[in-house]
Amino acid sequence: MEAEVKTAVRTFKKEDKDCKPQECMAALLPVRDALEVLSGRWKLPILIALSDRPKRFKEISKDINGITDKMLSKELKDLEINKLVTRTVYDTFPPTVEYSRTQHSQSLGDVIMALKDWGTLHRKEIIGK
Predict the structure, then answer these.
(1) Which ranges carry the HTH hxlR-type domain (predicted)?
(2) Is 33 helix (H, G, I), strand (E, B) or coil?
(3) C-beta separation of 18 from 43 below 8 A
(4) Cα–Cα distance between 30 and 10 in angstroms, integer?
(5) By C-alpha distance, which of 76, 93, 73, 74 is closest to 85?
(6) What's the CATH fold of domain 2-127?
(7) What does the pLDDT look like over 53-83, one tens digit per residue?
(8) Cβ neighbours of residue 53 closer than 8 Å, sequence gap 6 or more
C-alpha cells in the first residue's frame, strides 16, 4: 500500500509528457478513496476528539463546537463503517456506549499533521496569517 502511494505521488509530480491522464488518475485512486472516507466538516474533528481516550456520545458532542447530535450520529456511523472508530456497548443500566479510535485510524496521525502543516502554509499564502 505504501509503495502504491509513493508511486501515485511520483506519477502526480511528473511533469513530462509520459504521464498519460488515465495512468495518472488510476495512480491517484487511493488518494480519492482517502478523501471520500475523510470528507466533510466533522470527521477529522471527531477523530481528533477521540485521540486521547474513548468517549461517550455527549462528551464528543461537547468537544466539537457546532455539531448537531444528528450529524454526530451520522458521522460516527460512517467512521465505524470505515473501521476508523469502534462503538462499545457496556452491559449496564442504562446501557453505556463509548466510542474510540481503532488501531487503523492511528495511522492517520501523519496525514493529519501534514494537512495541518499545509493548511498553515495555505492560510499564510491566501490571507497572510
Answers:
(1) 29-127
(2) helix
(3) no
(4) 13
(5) 76
(6) Arc Repressor Mutant, subunit A (1.10.10)
(7) 999 999 999 999 999 999 999 999 999 999 9
(8) 100
- Detail the DSSP E strand segments found in 15-108: 55-56, 85-90, 96-101
CB hemisphere CA count around 57 (13 angstroms): 16
pLDDT tens figures, 113-128: 999 999 999 999 999 8
Question: E-assigned strands of 16-124?
Answer: 55-56, 85-90, 96-101
Question: Helices (H) and strands (E) in the chain — how many of each?
Answer: 8, 3
Where do we find the cell 462499545?
88
> How far is the C-alpha of 71 from the C-alpha of 73, rounded, in Å?
5
On whether the pTM is more than 0.70, the answer is yes
First to last CA, the chain: 36
> For residues 49 and 72, is the Cβ–Cβ distance under 8 A?
no
Partner residues linked to 56 by β-bridges: 98
Q: How far is the C-alpha of 38 from the C-alpha of 74, rounded, in Å? A: 13
C-alpha cell at 89: 456497548
Please tell me what DSSP assigns to residue 50.
T
